Amino acid sequence: MNDKNTEQNTELENKLKNEKRLEYANFLFIWIIRMIFIAAIVVSVVLRNVNTIIPSILGTVLVFLPVLIPRLTNFHIIPEFHLIFALFVFLAMFVGEIGLYYETVWWWDILLHTFSGFLLGLVGFSLVYFLNNAENVNISMSPFFVALFSFCFAIMCGVFWEIFEFSLDQIFGTNTQRSGLVDTMWDLIVDTVGGFSAALIGYFYLKKDKESFFIKLALKLISKNDSIRPSLVRLKDKIDRFKIEERIIVKKPYNDKKQSDKNRNNM
After folding, report:
1. If we measure between CA atoms, which residue out of 222, 257, 259 comes closest to residue 242?
2. Residue 111, Cβ neighbours under 10 Å: how many?
3. pLDDT tens-digit series, residues 91-131
4. Which of 238, 42, 19, 58 is nearest to 164 (CA)?
5. Beta strands of the chain (E only): which ranges?
6. Chain centroid to CA 189: how far?
7. Gap between the Cα atoms of 267 and 263, Å rounded
8. What is the pTM for the complete model shown?
9. Residue pLDDT, tens place only, 135-164
10. Radius of gyration of the chain from Cα atoms?
């Protein structure tokens, strides 16, 4: 019995060490990206290059955004999501805009929009997946409607992004929508392909209950924000992989609370 406990403790220690190494590597990589964007701002100002100043400033703001979110909203972003977001901003704003890959590499815009559509679809899937399993939400959606929500969520975000690009072009005279309607339509098409792929993966995950790398990340994200998530989420035995203590949070129904307040006033 003692040997088994020792083995479990050793395994847990190794897991914690690996997570620490991953956090340090993410921290270093993200700061390298931040310094590149800051250097790009300085170079753009010195050379008075208006075409690179806006993407440099926007990229800098975006890569520092995950640091501001926990301070403003008490929502903590796990290192893996932070790294994916920073890498995407670097590929889109620095390599794409400043490095002119959007103009010289024809498939660069298609690649990034497909990837962003896929990621947004997974984000939408995780949101409705955990909401669908929350005990204080009296609704249960089928795998089809969970996948449909994630698909629509990805398309909605893609539409908002195209509106953002159009606003930039109209206000600042930039050229983010290079070929106008054609560029916008292709962006929305590949966003749809990426979102559909994520929805399809989520659908088969719910039907067959197979392990998923993204579901593991989503569980880890939930554990980091336990205090602000909506009541108890039924994570069952999956939550044990992250050594999270499952707590049963019992909340009185809303009607009971109203009745209690009424009785108190009558007294």
Report:
1. 222
2. 15
3. 998 999 899 898 899 899 899 999 999 988 888 887 777 67
4. 58
5. none
6. 21
7. 6
8. 0.71
9. 555 556 788 888 899 999 999 999 998 898
10. 23
